Amino acid sequence: MEIPSESSLAEAIETLSTNRISSAPVRNVNSPENAGWMDRYIGIVEFAGIAVWLLHQSEIAVRRTGTGSPKHGAATEGIATQVRRVKVSENNEGTYAGCGMVNSVHEEADILGGTFLETLTASDFYKKTKVKDISGSFRWAPFLALQKSDSFLTMLLLLSKYRMKSLPVVDLGEKKIDNIITQSAVVHMLAECVGLHWFENWGTKKLCELGLPINYNKIIKIEPLSIGVDADKHNGLKVNEGDSVLKAFQLMRKRRIGGVPVVDNSGRKAIGNISIKDVQYLLIAPEMYKGYRSITAIDFIRSVKSYLQTHKDASPRFLGVLTCHRNNTIKDIILKLDAEKLQRIYVVDDEDNLEGVITLRDIISRLVHEPNGYFGDFFDGVVPLPENSTV
Question: Mind listing the UniProt keywords for this protein, alphabetically (predicted)?
Answer without folding.
Answer: CBS domain, Repeat
